[in-house]
Amino acid sequence: MAKVPTQISLTAIALDASSAVPLYRQLYDSIRAAILSGQLASGLKIPSSREMARDLSVSRNTVAGAFDQLIAEGYLEAQTGAGTFVSKKIPDELLYASNKTNSQSPKNAAKRELSKRGKTIAATSVSFPLDKQRLRPFAPCLPSVEDFPLQIWAKLAGHRLRYPARNLLNYGEAAGYRPLREEIAAYLGAARGVRCAPEQVIVVTGTQQAVDLTARILLDADDTVWVEDPGYLGSRGAMNAAQARIVPVPIDAEGIEVETGVKLAPDARLICVTPSHQYPLGVTMSLKRRLELLRWASRAGAWILEDDYDSEYRYEGRPLAALQGLDNDNRVIYTGTFSKVLSPALRIGYLVAPPDLVDAFTAGKALLDRHSPIFEQMILADFFAAGHFARHIRRMRNLYAERRDAFISAAKSELNGLLEIAPSAAGLHLIGWLNNNLNDTTAARAAAENGVDCEPLSALSIRKTNRQGLVLGYASFDEKHIKEGAERLATALQNC
Ligand SMILES: Cc1ncc(COP(=O)(O)O)c(C=O)c1O
What we know:
Blueprint: H1 23-36, E1 45-46, H2 49-56, H3 60-72, E2 76-79, E3 83-86, H4 97-101, H5 116-122, H6 150-162, H7 178-192, E4 201-204, H8 207-218, E5 224-229, H9 233-241, E6 245-252, E7 255-256, H10 258-264, E8 270-273, H11 287-300, E9 303-307, E10 332-337, E11 349-352, H12 358-369, H13 374-385, H14 388-414, E12 419-421, E13 429-434, H15 440-449, E14 455-456, E15 469-473, H16 479-494
Parallel strand pairs: 5-6, 5-8, 8-9, 9-10
Antiparallel strand pairs: 1-3, 2-3, 4-11, 6-7, 10-11, 12-13, 13-15, 14-15
């Protein structure tokens, strides 16, 4: 058996004063780890808090805080008049525990296997690795969180906390806070032509949960799902995790090619679409295509998942109403989000279920997380009721329209000949088609090295793409940053 040291080695204790972890906690972690790994044998005398404080150049309080915690948890024992010792009573199974958990090859490897579904989930990625620490042009999919109505939000939150309703701190309804569901139903009816009663609205933690729930409720393993290609990784990932058979269906100027979908997979059970503003290409599904899709789904007994993620932002012409409003056969599961209108950190979205599926979706939601947090739902309901929501959308629509113009003009002046911006009258991003046969992954990498974030279209595509392009978000950047971003992107592309 290896010899167990009997001297506490302070050199192994590295404290980092700049860390967010308090010093006493770092010291606690180091001593505990040394005891559990056997580096500090049971019965070993620990230096006094005064000595340790001096040797480690920390305050005595810091050491005392760590000792107190270790004594309370039974790792150390204080003996009056004699000092502090590593406890003799640490159970054997705890000793060497950290060594065991860190082992590279666990003994019972076969029993540690993930399930088939677990393996699929572990291998699924739903986001593109942008630099999350620094928001850099042209990171796509993000609203301008600097324009989040913080003061109003704080006032509404303060009011709710000062005069808390009884239901603020209790369990709530699985489908969500009733007044918010009423506000959402009224808004969707008026602004999106969605036909729904508040009972059909289920508040979820963003589109991602709506998509995941849909897969859970409507799909068995190996069921066929059409996804848009290129398309949103979030929904494709959830369908993949549900072990569905994913069939990529191309997009043309009218949206998803229904005819091609029928040829490729006439047995589809679910069709995932973004009709208002196809992600990422930005086309709006034509009325003709909408009717074709609805008719086919009705005949085939397929479901349609309509992701209406940023429909609030249309800068020219009138928005087309949601597909759900045209559906006479209750085939559409409609979902929307506050991630683009307010903030993605809120994690609030909604799902509108066909009446006969409401109970199943509500049960599914309850199983996932009982219900979404109530406090934020209350504030949001108050935000709607006081008219702030409608005002906020108007304000943001004007701001984004200005930024879109600024982006288009910066692209014209800086990126001419390198990138061709595809026109789109909606959303928070635009597609830049690459010229000179540039590979989009290489281009995105070069852009990142030069301070610009963007998503290569190929990362969102299943089939090989004919043309390479970049998804470029403009909404979170002011004119100055847009101009700078375009210059940097131009330099990166020129050097590719
Ligand atoms: C197509 C699409 N749907 C939905 C979302 C929003 O997802 P969530 O509501 O989960 O934040 C996004 C965000 O990037 C998106 O691009």
